[in-house]
Write a structure and sequence with these properties.
alpha+beta, PTS-regulatory domain, PRD, about 60% helix, about 5% strand
Length: about 280
């Protein structure tokens, strides 16, 4: 493959067999080489092709700013997460996670440890991603002898959630905060603590994840099932009142009109998890 750009001694941009740009990595791969040279196949350890041009630019910038071992460690973590989560992760994970892990390692060396205010909710709302975050912390310890705690596992889990949804990291933070607010209202309005190990709880969490993404995209369910609302309201008055409070909160804090269909769905989910 022909080298198009040397990023540093270990990373180059080259044209692959289809004439498309690809990132090649390997110790000493770029040392002493110039544009137009052939990349020695025996030195290539990893290759990546990112499809979005903006993402590719950010990826190249990242590779010039963090140590290669940090990126290779992150790549191991991502591979493990893909296998255990059984999910497709967007290419953005190859930018956001190495950047985060490298920064976390550098902060640790300086004696700076960050607490994760959403840790409890991350464990509850994203249990599989949290377990993948714990596995990532184990891999970091094996590679660097740095023992991060569960706060860091929670931070890494949020990157996996982000990559599954294809959004930006702030959207995942907002989504988790929305779910926090919803369950606060459920406890206040219904006077009940949902069974967080129940199937109904995880169904409600899944619904709220999609609701958060609809809010971010400005996509409402509308009122297509409005005729079903009166009998549901009559059967589950407490759950309906709670769902109304949630819709008011969403309107006030997110300027989003959830619609009667969302009110219906929320009522049914709340009735199931609280018995109200």
């Amino acid at each position: 493959m022909q080298i198009q750009k040397v990023l540093n001694n270990n990373v180059v941009i080259a044209l692959d067999e289809n004439g498309e740009e690809t990132v090649l990595m390997g110790r000493g791969l770029g040392f002493g080489r110039r544009t137009g040279d052939s990349a020695p196949a025996n030195l290539i350890e990893k290759r990546f092709s990112l499809h979005a041009e903006q993402l590719s630019d950010r990826f190249q910038q990242l590779l010039t700013s963090i140590p290669l071992p940090h990126f290779l460690l992150s790549e191991r973590i991502i591979d493990h997460a893909k296998r255990t989560l059984g999910a497709t992760l967007s290419d953005s994970i190859y930018v956001t996670l190495p950047d985060h892990i490298s920064a976390a390692i550098e902060r640790h060396k300086q004696g700076i440890e960050l607490s994760n205010p959403l840790l409890w909710d991350i464990r509850q709302f994203y249990p599989e991603e949290y377990r993948a975050g714990c596995a990532a912390v184990d891999l970091i310890r094996e590679e660097t002898d740095i023992a991060f705690d569960e706060d860091e596992a929670g931070f890494i889990a949020m990157h996996f959630v982000n990559a599954e949804g294809g959004g930006e990291f702030p959207e995942v933070y907002d989504m988790t905060c929305l779910m926090q607010r919803v369950f606060e209202l459920v406890r206040e309005q219904c006077g009940a603590e949902p069974d967080r190990d129940s199937v109904d709880f995880y169904r409600f969490v899944a619904h709220l994840k999609f609701l958060a993404r609809r809010i971010a995209a400005g996509q409402s369910y509308g009122d297509r099932d409005a005729d079903l609302l009166p009998p549901v309201q009559e059967k589950y008055p407490a759950a309906f009142a709670c769902a109304q409070a949630i819709c008011r909160m969403i309107s006030e804090e997110y300027s989003f009109d959830a619609g009667k269909n969302e009110l219906l769905c929320l009522t049914l989910h709340i009735a199931r998890i609280t018995g109200a």
